[in-house]
Backbone:
């Protein structure tokens, strides 16, 4: 399944064989390489998704974090852009750290910002607490 990243899409689930969302027409292959498979979670300013990098052998999994600043102000958008770029550069400088997923890519599309990081399999903190207790 391919998942559409358009927050206004009425039906974001699509076949893996298409590159345009059937419901809203949004491109499903980001930067000609990342195919979003499912949503992991979302909050007030963005969402997190599992994706595959189709440009690499074996199409490895990755995580895409989407930041959607809700503003019409140029200055607020520029501040969000600056903070996003600073975070991406900081993650890039950290490099390979055993406690932090590695930064693979970052970019901006239509005033939305994206961080692509290595996928780490396992359970969420919420799942662990539910299973093992606090």
Residues:
């Amino acid at each position: 399944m391919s998942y559409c990243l358009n927050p206004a899409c009425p039906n974001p689930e699509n076949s893996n064989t298409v590159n345009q969302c059937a419901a809203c027409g949004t491109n499903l292959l980001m930067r000609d390489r990342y195919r979003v498979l499912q949503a992991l979670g979302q909050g007030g300013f963005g969402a997190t998704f599992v994706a595959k990098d189709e440009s690499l052998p074996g199409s490895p999994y990755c995580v895409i974090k989407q930041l959607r600043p809700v503003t019409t102000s140029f200055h607020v958008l520029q501040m969000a852009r600056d903070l996003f770029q600073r975070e991406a550069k900081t993650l890039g400088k950290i490099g390979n750290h055993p406690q932090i997923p590695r930064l693979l890519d970052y970019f901006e599309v239509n005033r939305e910002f994206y961080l692509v990081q290595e996928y780490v399999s396992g359970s969420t903190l919420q799942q662990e607490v539910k299973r093992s207790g606090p």
Observations:
- The chain has two helices and eight strands.
- The CA atoms of residues 45 and 70 lie 7 Å apart.
- The longest strand covers residues 34-42.
- The first helix runs from residue 74 to 94.
